[in-house]
Each structure stands twice: as structure tokens, then as C-alpha cells.
Amino acid sequence: MKKQTAMNRDWIATARTLSEALPYLQRYTGAIVVIKFGGHAMGDDAEMESFARDVVLMRQVGVNPVVVHGGGPMINEMLSRLGVESEFVRGKRVTDAATVEVVEMVLSGRVNKRIVQAINDQGGRAVGLSGKDGGLMTCDQTDPSLGFVGTPADVNPAVLHKLFEAGMIPVVAPLGAGRNGETFNVNGDTAAGAVAAALKADRLLLLTDVAGVKDASGEVVTELSPDHIRELTEAGIIAGGMIPKTETALAAIAGGVRAVVILDGRAPNACLLELFTDHGAGSLIRAPRD
Ligand SMILES: Nc1ncnc2c1ncn2[C@@H]1O[C@H](COP(=O)(O)OP(=O)(O)O)[C@@H](O)[C@H]1O
Ligand SMILES: CC(=O)N[C@@H](CCC(=O)OP(=O)(O)O)C(=O)O
């Protein structure tokens, strides 16, 4: 009897949650949501499982999710095992010919397949690809001093639309093809922003290992304007890996994405709470018309 009462309480809570979520579910039916899953947000198996469950649930309620992942820490680990040094300039890895080989092996291989498998284990149908597949992302060299680092120049999302139509979840590794047969290493945030802009996505979620963009006092800024981003960057308060994220947010908005959220991907159900409740956390940067 006691058990029954507890069960009823659970159902009432679930029904309440569902009725609160309904307007959000309706708003996002058919929406395209690009999720950047950073290497630092990936965490352990439980965090990966929770992320995969969110993505599958999104798909089940009619959202078209696209995962664009990073994997910087995993690349670092492999480079150090191989005794190759690497350095970062403004959040981007200086990438020579030997490094880009390792980057491709780690991102398109181990990291991409771990995410694909996690989504499939939760009942989704994920397909792993990189920017080199299906003409998705053609790049130009960002800056000769960075070596094989690419800036997406021509993004053709046709292959992603085909996967949406087939009910599949694309999982994209941030590598691009050069115009002369090169392989380019693309910062994961930059790749996610370019894919989101090409798709004119409804939301770009940049998952990381901090609650959002912090100001000088260490508080998360819940809504950020472009001017505030520029101010915090010039003051050195937005630094390191946060620079490509905020630059990406501005470029994505300029490219037609409706809103970008920078949030902690390790928090349980981070993506679902962000999309389907009022309790979303993180820093929101939105297009003036959104
Ligand atoms: N103003 C800021 N607010 C929040 N984090 C910041 C800020 N400036 C720099 N950071 C750093 O940026 C990091 C996120 O970037 P990064 O480590 O590249 O993440 P990811 O691997 O998830 O892409 C945070 O862990 C934090 O140390
Ligand atoms: C050019 C560049 O810096 N590429 C990144 C690609 C991976 C990435 O962006 O991973 P996170 O999202 O986990 O940081 C790198 O080599 O580390």
C-alpha cells in the first residue's frame, strides 16, 4: 500500500513535469538543435550515458539533434603517449603534419565511435561522420602559423538533412577537407558554429565544464550581449578555451542561428532542462529577433 502511494506521487510529479514541458515540446517539434559536446564535458561513462539519453529523447519528441564533438583532452593524451608536444594559441592547437594524423585518428576514431555507440545503446540511431564526409565541410587554412588548422569556408549540410529524414542522429567529428586534398583540424566550437549556421539551427548548445561565461566577480552571466562579450574578452576575463566559444556564438548568430547557450554539459539532463523547462542554466546569447 505504501509502495502504491509512492508510485502515485511519482506519477503526479511526472504528469506535472510533462504538462509543464508540453509548450516547449510543441515549440521544438521539427527544430534543429546543434549540440557541441566538448572533450571536458564528456566525463565518465555515466555522464556519457546521460548525454546520450538526452539526445535520443530529443529525437523521440521530434527534434532533429546534431552532435558536433570535441576531444581535446583525448588528443592530448594520445600525443603525450606518442611523445609529441603541442601548444595552443588563442584556444587553437598548432597542428603540424604529424599532429593532424593523430587528431584525425582520435577524433574520427575513438571519440566519434564512443559517442555513436552511447547513443545507439540508448535506442537511437547515430551515424558518425566528419566534415570530410559527404562534402559537409570544406576549409581554408586559418593562419599559416597554426599549420593544418582550418576555418570552415563552405559547409554543405545536405548529408545532415538526409540523415534527419531517415530518423538518424548525425555525430560529427571536427575535421574538414582542404581544397588541395589536405586534412584540416577544426576547433570543435568553430565546427559546431559553422554547421549550426549552415542549418540555420534553432539552438546551438555549447556544452562545457563550467556553468557558463563568468564575469570579473566569477558570477555566470545568464544573458550576454555581443558588446558584453567584446568587453569581457578585451579585459581578459573571457580567456583560453572560452574565446572560441564566445567567438563561435557571435558568428553563429550572425550566420542565422536563433540562439546559442554555453552551459555545463556534465550537469544531469543539461540539454533537456535547457530546451524543455524554465530551469535552463548557462549563458544565453540570442539573435535580436529571437
Ligand atoms: N570568463 C570565463 N568564464 C568561464 N570559463 C572561462 C572563462 N574564461 C576562460 N574560461 C575557461 O574556459 C574553459 C572552457 O573551455 P575548454 O576547456 O576549451 O572547454 P571544452 O573542452 O569543453 O570545449 C573553462 O573550463 C574555463 O577554465
Ligand atoms: C584547432 C583545434 O584546436 N582543434 C581541436 C579539436 C578538438 C576540440 O576542439 O576539442 P574540445 O572541444 O574538447 O576542446 C584540438 O586539436 O584540440
From TrEMBL:
Instruction: Return the EC number.
Output: 2.7.2.8
One Gene Ontology biological process? L-arginine biosynthetic process via ornithine
Q: Where does the Aspartate/glutamate/uridylate kinase domain lie?
A: 32-263
Could you tell me one molecular function GO term of this UniProt entry?
A: ATP binding
**Keyword Kinase: yes or no?**
yes
User: What catalytic activity does the UniProt entry give for this protein?
Assistant: N-acetyl-L-glutamate + ATP = N-acetyl-L-glutamyl 5-phosphate + ADP
Q: Which family does it belong to?
A: Belongs to the acetylglutamate kinase family. ArgB subfamily.
What's this chain's function? Catalyzes the ATP-dependent phosphorylation of N-acetyl-L-glutamate.
* Protein name (Swiss-Prot/TrEMBL): Acetylglutamate kinase
